[in-house]
Amino acid sequence: MSNGLIPATILTGFLGSGKTTLLKRVLSESHGQRIAVIENEFGEENIDNDILVADTEEQIIQMSNGCVCCTIREDLRATLATLAEKRRKGELHFDRVVIETTGLADPGPVAQTFFMDDEVAESFLLDSILTLVDAKHGDGQLDTRQEARRQVGFADQIFLSKADLVDAATLDALSHRIKHMNPRAPQHRVDFGVVPIKDVFDLRGFNLNAKLEIDPAFLDADDHGHHHHGHDHGHEHGPDCGHEHAPGESCDHPHHHRHDDDVKSFVFRSDKPFNPARLEDFLGSIVQIYGPKMLRYKGVLNMKGTERKVIFQGVHQLMGSDLGPKWAPGEKRESRMVFIGIDLPRDVFQAGLSQCLA
């Protein structure tokens, strides 16, 4: 990468969803990239020793194919710092990092490490969070485990694994359910961990200043094929159907009412510009109160006083914004924000954001 930052990918997913299979596949594919893998030690299954060359007492292991594997014995920050230092000194060679979280982990703190710590931020760029969902057991896991729902809410990209083990109707229902929880993340169906490398790396899910074309999905999260003035309360089909339906089509999938998942998304939009100071105050206070329940939030904002788009996003309590490209001549200046979280009070957010308009 031109800026010299090492791209990092967080791989998450519930127990048995196939993270290790996917990783092995990525590590053994001949793509010419050297990958450093960081594993949370108490993973359900460590990477097979057959692709490791060294004795596993060592914290950082060079693999036979040139990849590097680390188990975390201290915190992630320290491990990343060590890797970056060894790479600078030429002791280790790798092109990117993949962090495999345990099946029960909340990816939030892992993602936050890349924003909070200056040393990490100077060396690494968080590329994206990938979540694997087991097509066969996913429904049950989403029903019973909030960790599984959170992992879906955090994702930039979702892989439905073991898709070959269920029928099309089951797969479609699961896919639709996940789309309600996180309309921003594209879904890929995969069998036996066979995923082309282009679907795994350089997705730029997290790049603030990357061009928005690469993540068009989050901007369309609430488009129903027709336009509203002001912001969209989603009256057409219940307040929480945050994804595309044809105009007038209702979201009446029978399974949808069975699962009123606590992880949901909603979109705020307005063609009036924001007052920057008011918006900053409101977002600051909202994050203080609801931060732990705010999984991901992201937006393109029309701010009073600048000719450029403002791109903003956050994870839990951590929020960042950046100046994007200029609004093109004739382009509709519309602010669009998407919030994905656990039982967030949509009306409080909508009313508060409306108050911040200039």
Automatic annotation (TrEMBL):
Residues 233-259 have a biased composition (Basic and acidic residues). Belongs to the SIMIBI class G3E GTPase family. ZNG1 subfamily. Zinc chaperone that directly transfers zinc cofactor to target proteins, thereby activating them. Zinc is transferred from the CXCC motif in the GTPase domain to the zinc binding site in target proteins in a process requiring GTP hydrolysis. Residues 263-357 form the CobW C-terminal domain. The keyword Chaperone applies. This is G3E family GTPase. One of its GO terms (molecular function) is nucleotide binding. It comes from the Bacteria. The keyword Coiled coil does not apply. It holds the Pfam family cobW. Residues 225-259 are annotated as: Disordered. It catalyses: GTP + H2O = GDP + phosphate + H(+).
